[in-house]
Design brief:
The protein is of the alpha+beta class. Helix content is 34%, strand content 33%. The protein has three helices and four strands, in the order E-H-E-E-H-H-E. The longest helix has 16 residues.
C-alpha cells in the first residue's frame, strides 16, 4: 500500500475555494481503481497547546492507494488535470509526501 500526505496551502483567504473544488473532485478520485482513502482534513479545534497547527490557509489530504501503479494512474487522470487547472491561481504551495509502511 502507498500512503500519501499532501499539504495544500492556498493563497491567503482562498482555502474555502480550493476545498470546494477539491470536494467536487472527490467522487471521481474515489472511483479510481486502487483508491482506498482520499480525504481532506484541517486543524481540529480545542486540542491544546501541544498541537502543531497546519494553519487557516492550509489543508492536508490523506490518501491510501493499493500500489504505486494506482497512484501513478491517479496523477495522470483527466479529472486531476481539471482540478489542477481550476485551482492553479488559488494555491500558493503544494507539498506531496509519498510513503510506504515502515
Amino acid at each position: 500500500m502507498i500512503h500519501v500526505i499532501a499539504v495544500i496551502t492556498a493563497k491567503p483567504g482562498r482555502r474555502g475555494e480550493v476545498l470546494e473544488a477539491f470536494r467536487a473532485n472527490i467522487p471521481a478520485v474515489r472511483a479510481e481503481d486502487g483508491c482506498i482513502e482520499y480525504v481532506p482534513v484541517v486543524d481540529a479545534e480545542g486540542m491544546g497547546s501541544w498541537q502543531a497547527r497546519i494553519g487557516e490557509d492550509s489543508f492536508v489530504v490523506v490518501e491510501k492507494w493499493r500500489d504505486a501503479a494506482a497512484l501513478a494512474a491517479h496523477a495522470k487522470a483527466p479529472h486531476m488535470a481539471d482540478y489542477s487547472a481550476k485551482t492553479r491561481e488559488l494555491v500558493a504551495t503544494r507539498t506531496i509526501h509519498v510513503m510506504s509502511a515502515a
